[in-house]
Amino acid sequence: MTDSRPWLLYGATGYTGELIAREAVRRGMRPILAGRSKAKVEQLATELECPSAVFSLDDHTTMLSSMQGIGAVLHCAGPFSATARSMMQACLASHVHYFDITGEIDVFELAHSVHEKAQRSGIVLCPGVGFDVVPTDCVALKLKEAMPDATHLTLAFDAGAGVSKGTAKTAVEAAGDGSKARRDGRIVSEPLASQTRSIDFGHGEKLAVGIPWGDVSTAFYSTGIPNIDVLTATTPQRIASMRRANSLRPLLRQRWFKALLKYRIDLRVTPPDAAQRSNTPSFIFAEVRNAAGQTFAVRFRTANGYALTVASALAIVTDVLHRPRAPGFATPSMLMGSDFVTALPGFAEVHAAS
């Protein structure tokens, strides 16, 4: 039965949140635009002719009041390690589906840990409905279907455009904990840049480095594969910087130092503009291996990560409202299937460079 209740977009005035808000309105939707800045939220809501709500995530009374009568929340205000718990709790209490655009392992693990609470509340909890982690999650499930006895999974991406200030600040939050991988079913910490590999994304070999990407969590729940590595294309200079940063990890955990780095991000980081988003596709490489040493790999490209996030987030939220799912925690591929990524903007299979 279709859920005709409106949905709420929190963090609507952030970089990605605003992109989603504008595209939603272009498609004829009227989400409730929400955030903590009254002036910014009301200005955008007036421009887009949408309803609005203003509350901070530590104002539980107003937050719960704002959720009355809505069907879902699309949470876009990071770093999600600092914001997701409050929003999830409010959604559980209000019987409202929860979605976000995180790529943070801790948020996925949090959502998984409250699976039974979500079932009792009758809601879907699905973090990561954007570039983090939709394309990689879908291809992980597709490869598991192709090689059911896979024991190892490698996922890698080459996303050449710049990042938003929010994404950069999220990276600062994670840096002090090093990199992450899954070994024999357990998430383990590894030194920064401890894993490197040369990968052909379809346009020649590129150096790639291991990162604490959300698939270390989600791909395990989607596929059951016990050993998972996630990498991103990089340069030798960046790898050298990451290795030097290992000695600074205790400092990177200090609140004052993270605040300093975030201040520098506010001054220096310029997110990609519309032309950059349009002209910079993302490339994905994925490979599985079984105990016999057999491997199977695929490569494909998608639209720029921010453009894909807009399309996938809107598709998932509206699909769940129109075709209700079993309640509880789910990854994007668990909700939408392994072929979901093929329907998103810019998808095309690519082949190894000759």
Question: How would you describe this structure in keywords?
Answer:
354 residues; alpha/beta; Rossmann fold; Dihydrodipicolinate Reductase, domain 2; 2 domains; seven-stranded parallel sheet; seven-stranded mixed sheet; 15 helices; globular
Set out the fold topology.
Blueprint lengths: L6 E4 L4 H12 L5 E4 L2 H11 L3 E3 L5 H7 L5 E4 L4 H15 L2 E4 L4 H9 L1 H7 L2 E3 L7 H13 L3 E10 L5 H11 L3 E5 L2 E5 L5 E5 L4 E6 L4 H9 L3 E7 L2 H10 L3 H4 L2 H14 L5 H6 L2 E9 L4 E8 L2 H18 L5 E2 L2 H5 L11 E2 L5
Parallel strand pairs: 1-2, 1-4, 2-3, 4-5, 5-6, 6-15, 7-12
Antiparallel strand pairs: 7-13, 8-9, 10-11, 11-12, 13-14, 14-16
Helix pairs in contact: 1-14, 4-5, 5-9, 7-9, 8-12
Class based on secondary structure composition and strand pairing: alpha/beta
| Total helical segments | 15
Taken from the alpha-carbon principal axes, the silhouette is globular
- Assembly type of the chains comes to single chain
Number of strands: 16
CATH class of the largest domain: Alpha Beta
Query: Uncertain runs with pLDDT below 50, 5 residues or more?
Result: none
CATH architecture descriptor of the largest domain:
2-Layer Sandwich
| Widest sheet, order of strands | 3-2-1-4-5-6-15
Radius of gyration: 20 Å
Q: Please tell me the total number of domains.
A: 2
The CATH homologous superfamily of the largest domain corresponds to Dihydrodipicolinate Reductase, domain 2
* Helical content band: 40-55%
Mean pLDDT: 93
Name the beta content range: 15-25%
CATH topology of the largest domain: Dihydrodipicolinate Reductase, domain 2
Q: Sheet bearing the most strands, described?
A: 7 strands, parallel
Distance between the termini: 50 Å
